[in-house]
Amino acid sequence: MIRAIKNRFGASDEVGCFDLSDSGIESVLDPTGLFTSRHAEPVPGTCVTVTLEGRRPLLAEIQALVSQGRENDFGNARRVVSGLDSARTSMTLAVLELRAGIRVGGRDVYAATVGGMKMSEPAADLALALAVASAAKGLALPSDLVAIGEVGLAGEIRKVSGVDRRLQEAFRLGFKRALVPTGSETKIAGMEIVEVSRLDQALKRVKITGE
């Protein structure tokens, strides 16, 4: 992945995806397959989001694994993150437990993006929270669902930029359902778009409940 931040006329904010093969460097016209994985059956602990690289929307899958752990054994719990911002991940886990009742204290949590993608924008918070909750409860999310939204410390889901562009790309690639922040006001024929204002509300929409 090559990012062009600036050219002689100003900011460009463009990104190009390339693959190094036996015949040389080739452009990847549809890079979604690089950052998502297709499962024969829905698997607990996975959730797809849509990130913006410059002006280009890219689908990315977040995977999470939560160990059984020991109750109240907070000191030995591990947090291992790959491809995600570790500070935002820690914050999201705290909100998930304190605001939505998903117990992860004392349990090892592993979270990673598929394909080595680096993702730091807050719009991926909701997908991360859903992936961890799905793993913690052992309940798979719908395979045609994408989740977009920033998670605040009070458990609220905040609006992010470019929701319409993100959802258009998700729909083009076969995703039929989406969870987005309240006030996004995006409508796409053939896609069920559900607006949520709080994290616990989003979890209830995918039939995951806290303790």
TrEMBL record:
Task: Kindly state one GO CC term assigned in the UniProt record.
Answer: cytosol
| InterPro entries named among the record's database cross-references | Ribosomal_Su5_D2-typ_SF (IPR020568), Ribsml_uS5_D2-typ_fold_subgr (IPR014721)
Alphabetized Gene3D superfamilies for the sequence: 3.30.230.10
Q: Which GO terms describe its biological process?
A: recombinational repair
Its recorded name reads Unannotated protein
